[in-house]
Known about the structure:
- The chain has helices at residues 2-38, 55-71, 96-104, 142-145, 286-299, 316-321, 340-344, 363-371, 401-404, 429-435, 451-454, 474-482, and strands spanning 75-82, 123-131, 137-140, 153-156, 162-164, 166-171, 176-180, 190-191, 202-207, 215-226, 240-243, 255-258, 262-270, 281-285, 305-306, 309-313, 330-335, 351-355, 358-359, 378-385, 388-395, 397-398, 422-426, 441-446, 462-466, 469-470, 489-495, 501-507.
- The strands form five sheets. The protein has a seven-stranded antiparallel β-sheet with strand order 5-4-1-2-3-7-6. Strands 9-10-11-14-13-12 form a six-stranded antiparallel β-barrel.
- The chain starts with a helix and ends with a strand.
- Mean pLDDT is 80; it is low at 1-11, 21-25, 27-31, 86-92 and 401-415.
- With 511 residues, it is of the alpha+beta class.
- A hairpin with a 3-residue loop joins strand 12 and strand 13.
Amino acid sequence: MTQIIKKKLAYGIGALGVIAAVFVLSMGLTYGKLGDSKKNVKLGAAKPPIAQLPPAVEQLSDAFISVAKAVTPAVVQIRVTSTPKAVSVPNGQNSPNDMFKFFFGPDFPFHNFNMQQPRPEVEHALGSGVIVSPDGYIITNNHVVQGADPNGIKVTLLDKRTFEAKLVGRDPTTDVAVIKIKGDNLPYVALGNSDSIHVGEWVVAIGNPLGLDYTVTQGIISALGRNINIIRSTYGIEDFIQTDAAINPGNSGGPLVDLRGEVIGINTAIATNTGAYEGYGFAVPINIAKQVAMELIEHGKVTRPYIGVEIQDVDQTMAKALGMKEAQGVLVQSVQSNSPAEEAGIKAGDVILKFDGQKIEHANELQAIVASKRPGDKVTVEILHDGKTEDKTVTLKERTGEEFAAVSGVESSTANLKSLGLSVQDADKAILSKYGAKNGVLVTDVASGSEAEDRGLQKGDLIVGVDDQPIKSPSELEKIVDAHKPGDALLFRVTTAGKVSEFLALEIPQK
Length: 511
């Protein structure tokens, strides 16, 4: 039995071996056939689902391709080396670190200034620029090259050539700078006319965002004449082109280009809460950048004219107080002594409607137009004075250090007027002397959420007049306000403790 069992087991095991061999062979043949069949597999459909694009779409695509090919060779990568000084910044004050965070974002690795370090280390920044002449002049942003060490600016072209660049000059009031590299027959761009562009127009942004070389993005012009308060100067010129073409840290200084391949702006900043692209980018109009660049190249500095007025936008309430049918122009808050405006007969309370034939809607528009002129230019200024339009001839003067001084401040007024949310008191001789005024009443309180607060009035301001009537006592102020009905607007003349005079319009609220 034992032998029979062993023989049966042997036959069984042998049979299993044969079966296993046949199975493995058959599987091998099967896999072999599958492997052979892969040679005949076709991936994807034989034809595209859309046989032919509409001609307009193909033309638009070709336009983007052509712009990228034509302009990218003239776009450069700028690397800046700087050694920050060890300066202790008191708590609560802005440091250069804050400025770099605004432009480049909190997480951008090239900026890590620590003003508290006693031994600051060399830092590196990355930006973009665009070649505007065959001999190597490059326009970029002031904030890209600001603080660069001597011989600390390096420029790399698309073809990988690297140059050491010289700083020609920079203008903080427009955030424009010019650098130069030595070279011949360099690729350079055509400059367009930023005064002729339109909202909705297709544009292309080219630069080196986030360390990614020569990136091209597209979008449209979203708005014109934007003032986003990034140039921290009273005379800062902000008339930005807004675009939704993606602009990120590192794009600064690169070109914003139309579909003709002409540069219409220099990419400068982004509106962001994260430090990266969130849908809004801003560029300096090329007409401003070009003029600044020419001044820097020819003179090494920018010679800028001034007219000598402090201005503010006219809104609907202000227009009503001035007796205007619609809100337009800018209100002259004050006129500097011996300025072109004073010599031309422009007075505080006048409204500038047109400057050199161009209609003015916002204060930054007037600043940009004035900046486009030269000292000595004579311009016609259309103003509204006492309800009548007049033309004044203004001869612009060169702005010197004295005229650079800020003339700013928001003033306020009150006289125990619940409708406006104001409380005032008599101003004695000491107070009037402090404010440099001959008459007025002192604002002692401004109610939260009131018309007075909304219009910018503050505790401590001196109300010196309302609607061209001088105010000498709280009762006079109350009498004037009580004589008006809800919906009427009054024009207050106020002065701050800093002796800055300003007009503010308040509307009596509806009951």
